[in-house]
Amino acid sequence: MSKIISIHSFRGGTGKSNTSANLATLLAMQGLRVGVVDTDIQSPGIHVLFNLEPTEMRHTLNDYLWGKCDIEEAVHDVTPKLGVPISGKVLLVPSSIRTSEISRVLREGYDPGLLNDGFQRLVEKARLDALIIDTHPGVGEETLLSIAISDALVVVMRPDQQDFQGTSVTVEIGRHLDVPRMVIVVNKMPNIFDERDVKKRVENSYGCEVAAVLPHSDEMMALASQGVFVARYPNHSLTERMRGVAKSVYGPTVRV
C-alpha cells in the first residue's frame, strides 16, 4: 500500500526541499517507486537538486493545475540524474520556474482541490509506493489539504526561536487533522550545540518525536544544491541519520 508523506516547515530556508529529495532517494535506493511533487509553486526549486533543467520540463504541476495536461504527463524520471545505481525510481513533478507562470499563480491563484485529486491519480497511474509532497512554507489552503491526506508529516525546523514558534503552529495543525504519523527533524544544528539537549527541548516543547537532529555539514554546504546529498555521500553520518528518518516515516521495510 502506498504512503503519502508531506514535508513541511513554517518558514523557508529550513532545508525542507533537501529533506524531501534525500528521503525520496533513500526510499528509491530500497527499490521503491517514489513520486515527488513540488507544491511550492511560488518559489520552486527541488528540480535543481535532481539536476533537472527547466528546458527539460515537458510539462509541470502548473500545466496540470490549469488544465493543460494530466498529472502523469508532468512526471519526469530523474533517477538517472542521481548518478548512482538505484533499484527503484524517483519520479518528479516539478513546478514551473518561468516568471510568467509564477506571476500567474500570484495573480490568479488556482483550485487547491485539484492538487489532492492529482496526488491520488499520480499514486495510481505511476504505481507509487510512496508520494512525497514538498509543501509551500507557512499555512495555506493547499498545505492544509496536503497534510490532511498524508499518512505521515515531517516537520523540518532549525533550532532558533522563530522556528520554535512557527513549528508549534504546524504541529497543532497536524494533530487537529489527525495525521497518523508526525515527526520533527531538527536541521542545521550548530556544532557548538549539545544534540541531546536540543532533542530533549524540542520533544518537551511539542510532545512530538524528533526523528533526527541533523548538524550543520560543510559537505552539504559545499554541495550547494548541485545534487542529492545521500547519493553523493552514502557513507556520511548525516546520511545515516536521514536513513533513520526514512524508516521512521515509511516503516520497517526500509533498512537502516
Descriptive keywords:
256 residues, alpha/beta, Rossmann fold, eight-stranded mixed beta sheet, 41% helix, globular
Residues in helices, as a percent range:
40-55%
Query: Beta-sheet strand percentage?
Result: 15-25%
CATH superfamily, by name, is: P-loop containing nucleotide triphosphate hydrolases
Characterize the largest beta sheet: strand count, sense, and whether it forms a barrel.
8 strands, mixed
Order of SSEs:
EHEHHEEHHEHEHEHEHHH
CATH topology title: Rossmann fold
Number of helices: 11
**How many whole angstroms does the radius of gyration measure?**
17 Å
With strands numbered from the N-terminus, the spatial order across the biggest sheet is 3-4-2-5-1-6-7-8
Low-confidence parts lasting 5 or more residues at pLDDT below 50? none
Overall body shape: globular
Mean pLDDT: 93
| CATH first level | Alpha Beta
Number of domains: 1
Q: Any idea what the CATH architecture is?
A: 3-Layer(aba) Sandwich
Number of strands: 8
Strand and helix layout:
Blueprint: E1 3-8, H1 16-29, E2 33-38, H2 46-49, H3 61-65, E3 76-77, E4 89-93, H4 99-108, H5 113-125, E5 130-134, H6 141-148, E6 152-157, H7 161-176, E7 181-189, H8 195-206, E8 210-215, H9 218-223, H10 229-232, H11 237-250
Parallel strand pairs: 1-5, 1-6, 2-4, 2-5, 6-7, 7-8
Antiparallel strand pairs: 3-4
How would you summarize what this structure contains?
With 256 residues, the protein is an alpha/beta fold. It has helices at 16-29, 46-49, 61-65, 99-108, 113-125, 141-148, 161-176, 195-206, 218-223, 229-232, 237-250, and strands at residues 3-8, 33-38, 76-77, 89-93, 130-134, 152-157, 181-189, 210-215.
